[in-house]
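User: Sequence recovery, please. Input:
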């Protein structure tokens, strides 16, 4: 059925759909990232598929009971089972371990470093992933069946009790804020930066304002089918029902764009990924493509993930923009409109977001983000260079996204952007956004397998350059780290050898890759040496390539990665305060694998 129009039931006149593929698994929950689609399955496995070709990449498990939910962050995959939470490392897919739970889990929510679990006993469990500290609080008299959180706000509900909004900081118990909708039974909960959304058995969705917690409006269903799952961001809402309906709402216009139904099929969990919708169904995990008036409908265009998550960053994420009042316009107050920007390498392209945040007490209109210039000698923009947001309310934000497609294997340059808007007095303003420097090679490479003999032949006529660094690491430990790091930058390890002679350790690593676009080859030779029992290591990083323009960036990316501090056991990046504690002699426990680290592990 892949690639064929699904005519089993008509879509609305506005929205059309295409069934891309059906993955034959019995899925109970869905998650995804930039590269993979994840499903928790009833047969006690979490399955991972590559997006685009939908090939099965990994089967994680077997868990001790049926998974209830699956979550992913930058480095890990987590799944909640009845009495355990399992964790695997992305890429290698190795099991890192599990948490034993004291109560029976029914549902869970992951936000940042806080893992919330709703239990059969009506308790909310909280696990801090940085310290593994576990807390629990009795919130309900019956089992918690629905749960949503964005960090500061938690919303929980049961089959018998109305959903309740709670607030808490990291060191306190939840405090009840309000009980939502005492008259109707809640079947699903989600939210965004403005609303908490409660799905009902009749298929309607009630929206509650997160400022005053007032019932703002009800999105009335045209199907009368009980909702089982909802996905939302600041622009769109997607709901699924047991009767096999998918409904798409435009939250900015308060209109239903349409619904999709497949006769004889029951739907479960749903998630939207740009112009794709993933839905667990009675026939398998269905991937549906969505279009509006003949054009792919990007449901994630203004998603708030740029605020909530830490994506893989080209250089920096969401650094405050430099605000410069345009000549002849009044100066913007400090508490006014603020702009942040960030960029992530995603699947061979660069996703650049500009977050416009309205910290004024009034609505702003016609907020327009304009890309003035970008390095067009090595990339091109996909779509429009100007995007306009009609309205941003007080304490709200919008994050329009621009996609850049590389045309060369080495990307370097600056993205210049402006943001203009009109305030409540109809006065125009323009903000000059701080230029974003984009510089990347390794994200645009592919590993190139080679023997040592082939490697030497390939690099024979290559241009080369090198850098030398002296680091406060034991050379043998640094060698092990470099050997693990290089594949993460898309280099195939051709050779990695090290030995100690007369108390001096010497190690050599050779890696090879080629550009995705030009096919030009680039190689790395690393020489690490120093006293075998010492705490100083000399690292020489040599880059060799058919295009010399690629080499400085390649060497810089690798050198910065080698210098960074990571967990010796699992490779997770350490925070600056954790590094400071280790250097000061204090032990630090890895928030991911629980391995305890001391300075002795990095030095001898």
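Assistant: Recovered sequence (604 residues):
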């Amino acid at each position: 059925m892949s690639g064929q129009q699904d005519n089993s039931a008509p879509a609305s006149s506005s929205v059309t759909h295409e069934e891309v593929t059906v993955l034959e698994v019995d899925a109970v929950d869905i998650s995804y990232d930039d590269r993979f689609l994840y499903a928790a399955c009833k047969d006690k496995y979490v399955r991972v598929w590559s997006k685009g070709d939908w090939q099965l990449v990994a089967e994680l498990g077997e868990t001790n009971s049926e998974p209830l939910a699956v979550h992913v962050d930058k480095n890990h995959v987590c799944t909640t089972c009845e009495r355990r939470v399992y964790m695997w490392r992305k890429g290698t897919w190795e099991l890192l371990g599990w948490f034993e739970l004291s109560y029976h889990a029914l549902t869970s929510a992951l936000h940042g470093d806080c893992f919330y679990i709703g239990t059969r006993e009506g308790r909310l469990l909280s696990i801090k992933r940085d310290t593994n500290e576990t807390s629990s609080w009795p919130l309900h008299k019956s089992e918690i069946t629905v749960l949503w959180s964005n960090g500061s706000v938690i919303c929980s509900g049961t089959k018998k009790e109305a959903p309740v909004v709670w607030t808490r900081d990291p060191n306190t118990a939840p405090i009840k804020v309000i009980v939502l909708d005492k008259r109707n039974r809640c079947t699903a909960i989600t939210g965004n930066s403005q609303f908490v959304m409660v799905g009902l058995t009749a298929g309607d969705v009630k929206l509650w304002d997160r400022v005053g917690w007032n019932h703002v409006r009800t999105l009335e269903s045209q199907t009368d089918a009980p909702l089982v799952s909802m996905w939302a961001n600041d622009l769109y809402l997607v709901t699924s029902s047991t009767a096999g309906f998918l409904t798409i709402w435009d939250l900015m216009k308060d209109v239903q764009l349409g619904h999709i139904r497949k006769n004889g099929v029951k739907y479960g969990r749903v998630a939207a990924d740009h112009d794709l919708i993933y839905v667990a169904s009675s026939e398998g995990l269905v991937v549906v493509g969505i279009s509006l008036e003949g054009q792919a409908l990007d449901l994630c265009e203004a998603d708030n993930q740029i605020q909530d998550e830490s994506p893989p960053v080209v250089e920096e994420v969401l650094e405050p923009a430099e605000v410069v009042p345009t000549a002849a316009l009044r100066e913007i107050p400090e508490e006014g409109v603020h702009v942040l920007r960030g960029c992530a390498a995603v699947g061979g392209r660069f996703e650049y977001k500009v977050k416009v945040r309205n910290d004024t007490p009034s609505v702003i209109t016609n907020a327009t983000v304009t890309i003035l210039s970008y390095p067009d000698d090595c990339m091109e923009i996909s779509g429009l260079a100007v995007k306009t947001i009609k309205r941003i309310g007080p304490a709200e934000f919008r994050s329009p996204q621009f996609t850049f497609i590389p045309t060369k294997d080495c990307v370097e340059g600056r993205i210049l952007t402006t943001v203009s808007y009109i305030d409540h007095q109809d006065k125009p303003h323009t903000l000059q956004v701080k230029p974003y420097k984009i510089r990347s090679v390794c994200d645009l490479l592919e590993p190139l397998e080679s023997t040592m003999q082939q490697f030497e032949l390939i690099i024979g006529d290559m241009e080369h350059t090198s850098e030398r660094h002296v680091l406060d690491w034991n050379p043998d430990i640094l060698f092990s780290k470099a050997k693990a790091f290089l594949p993460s930058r898309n280099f195939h390890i051709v050779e990695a050898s090290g030995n100690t002679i007369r108390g001096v350790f010497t190690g050599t690593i050779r890696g090879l890759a080629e550009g995705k676009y030009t096919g030009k080859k680039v190689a790395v030779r690393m020489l690490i040496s120093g006293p075998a029992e010492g705490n100083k290591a000399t690292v020489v990083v040599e880059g060799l390539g058919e295009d010399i323009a690629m080499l400085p960036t390649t060497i810089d990316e690798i050198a910065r990665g080698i210098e960074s501090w990571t967990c010796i056991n699992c490779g997770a990046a350490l925070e600056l305060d954790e590094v400071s504690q280790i250097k000061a002699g204090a032990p630090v426990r890895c928030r991911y694998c629980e391995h305890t680290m001391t300075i002795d592990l990095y030095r001898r």
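Residues 269 and 500 are 56 Å apart (CA to CA).
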